[in-house]
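Why predict the complex rather than its parts? Because the way molecules touch one another can change local conformation, and only a joint prediction can capture that. The input here totals 321 residues.
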Amino acid sequence: MKDSFGRKLNYLRISVTDRCDLRCRYCMPECGVESIPHGEVLTYEETARIVRIMASLGVTKVRLTGGEPLLRKGITDLVRMISGTDGITETVMTTNGVMLSEKADDLIASGLKRVNISLDTLDRDVFRRLAGRDRLLDVTKGMDAAYSAGLGVKINCVPIRGINDTGLADIALISKDRAIDVRFIELMPIGCGAGLSGIPSGEVLSYLQERFGDFEPLQNDPASPAERFRFGGFTGSTGFISPMTHKFCDRCDRLRLTSDGFLKLCLQYPAGADLKTPIRAGCSDSELTDIILGAVSKKPSAHRFTEADMTDSRKMVQIGG
Ligand code: SAM
Ligand code: SF4
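Output of the joint prediction:
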């Protein structure tokens, strides 16, 4: 499936819940967001049906996200349904890691290939202030358990001035002796992120270079927006995802599905299509396919985060990153 700019769309990010057990300041207000009522959330069968149709249109990779995906009851059942879908070759998850230690083995057994764990600091006080909860030790335990169990592990860190900037070298060091990729992601001015000051990737790289010395550029994975490097003596890579300073919209290969069944075409804009209403009204697979293809033809060419008035009112916790 291609959009009107010829971009091949083969990657679907599914937010399975808008609930979360953390309150990261750039993502979710301390008071939370008004949760979608349970009856409005797609069932696993409805989600799996959308994945099956998407796979028939060329989607090969599915990421489960949220809110916090591990909070959704029976999530390993959904992982099993998706990873067993014809055409889906990669089922992965983005998680805050809090509940990962108890679920890592079941996730692997269900067909999950990799977890991206969001971890912005290794300092317990900073974590508590940034994530609103004292759960750092659960996250590091989850990371260790996932790695030991044989799940692929990537770490996502969002550098924010005056909040976690003094601990970025410690995050990078996670990849020193382990085959873990650490990626620094530029803060996007979406929802709660709008009032904070993100640090450009170039500045983080210079800072790490002062600390760790020379690095070799690595070949970038064409399916990933990350620019990757390896510092001397490091086992894993250090990557940078730079939606603000190096837009990668011309290579965008992704679609997003919110937990209430809305197919979202771009992280920024509200444009998309409601899939839940036609599904619950009994539409056929070919009707659903037409709705998806009709929406895809309207995928915007690029984000323009500086024009904030065009931005979706959904918070990141409701979209899934
Ligand atoms: N709860 C899971 C987690 O934290 O990994 C999955 C959902 S979370 C919304 C997905 C990703 O979005 C996280 O890596 C988080 O750091 C990132 N994120 C949230 N708000 C962001 C923002 N304003 N700018 C950049 N990344 C953001
Ligand atoms: Fe929750 Fe993830 Fe958002 Fe943090 S980034 S509040 S863990 S959804």
